[in-house]
Amino acid sequence: xxxxxxxxSPTERAGxxxxxxxxxxxxxxxxxxxxxxxxxxxxxxxxxxxxxVTPYAEAGAHFREFLAHAxxxxxxxxxxxxxxxxxRTLLPEAQTLISVALPYAGGSRLxxxxxxxxxxxxxxxxxxxxxxALGPDxxxxxxxKLAELAQACADIVGRAVLARSCVDTAPLLEREAAxxxxxxxxxxxxxxxxxxxxxYFLSGELLVDASIEPGTPLPDGCGRCRLCLDACPTGAFVDxxxxxxxxxIAYLTIEHRGVIPRELRRPIGARVFGCDxxxxxxxxxxAADKHPASPALAPRPELLGLSLRDLLMxxxxxxxxxxxxxxxxxxxxxxxxxxxxxxxxxxxxxxATVVLRAALGSSSDLVRxxxxxxxxxxxxxxxxxxxxxxxxxxxxxxxxxPMTWVRDEAEESLAALSKLG
Length: 421
Known about the structure:
There is one protein chain. The chain is built from 17 helices and 11 strands. It has 421 residues and is an alpha+beta fold. It has a domain at 307-421: Serine Threonine Protein Phosphatase 5, Tetratricopeptide repeat (Alpha Horseshoe), CATH 1.25.40. A hairpin with a 5-residue loop joins β6 and β7. α13 (333-346) packs parallel to α15. The protein is elongated.
C-alpha cells in the first residue's frame, strides 16, 4: 500500500496522485455523496459540493471577454492554458469535481467601514492587510486538507482513486466550479458568495476519477443590491459581475509590480496587501451565520498591527521573516515598501516625514518615487522646520535622481509643499 497523497510512480503527472483505500469496507455507491460531505466537514470544510467536469461554456466566454479588454492587467499568466473552463484538462480521467470552502476570520470591520468608507486605517499608522492573508499561506493549508479528503474518497469508494488538488494557482475557473457544485453563487463583486455563510472562505477543488451525482448550480442572489459596486474605493467595477483588475486595490498592491497610477494612490488608504471592501459591505456577510474560522488559518500576531513605518524600512532579512510561510510572499520587499509609502502618504501624519525622508535613499526607484509622492501629501502647513527639511530632500531628488519618473514625482511634491510655505 502506498503512502497517502504520494504518487505511486515517478512518471505520474505533476499535481496528480493516486490514493489507496486504507480499509476493505467500501460504502454503497448511493452513500458516496453524503459520506464525502461528512468527511469534508470533519476535515474542516464548511461547504462541500459536486460539479460536472464538462466545459463551462458561458463562464469561458465571459473570461474570454475579460482578456480581450485587457482587464487582467499585467497578469499574463491568465492568458496561458486556454479559457480555464475545462476541468478535464487538469485530469483527463476526472469524472467529478469536488468544490470545498474553508472559512477564515473576516468581517470584523463591517460596521466601521460602512461609517468611514475608504478611510479605514488611515490615521492609525498601521498597515491594513486583507483578512485572508493574515494567517499561514492558504495554498498549503487547503491543499493539505484536500489531500485528506482525497484519502477519504478512496476509503469511501473502496478502490484506488486518482485525484488532483487545485487551490487558486491551477488554470481553473474556481468560482464557476463552486457555482456549478451548488456551493456558492458569483456575486456582482465577482466574489463567490455562500447563502447563509457569506464570502469569507477560501476555495479548493478536488478532481477525482469517481462518478458522484452533481449538485444544482446556484442562481444569482444579489438582486438589486449594488453596495459592493458603489463602495469600491478605486471604482474597479466596469459593471456588475465585471471587474477591471487594473483598478483593483488587490491587484495594485499584490500583482502589479510597477508604478501605481497617481490617481489610484489616495483611494488605497492604508491597504498594503489586498482589499476587503467589497466583502465588508456585502449584506450576506453582515447577516451570515458565523462559521468558526479554521484554526489552521489563524492570523499571525506579527501581521496584526504591523507598523507602516517599520514596513517602509523593512530590511531584506526582516522581509524574509515577515513573509515566510504566508501569502505575503507573493509581493516583493520593494512592492511592500512601495505600498507602505503610499499608505504613509495617505495617513496625513506629519510625524511620518522622518522615516519617509530616510527612505528617499532607497536603492529602488520604485520606493523612492512613491516616497516622494507621499511627502507631498502630508499636511505640513505651519511646521516650518519639517517643511524646510522635506523641501530640501525633494529638491535634491528632483535634481539628481537617475530616473526621470522619480524626478517628476519629486517636482510635483515640491510644488505642493511650496504652496504650504
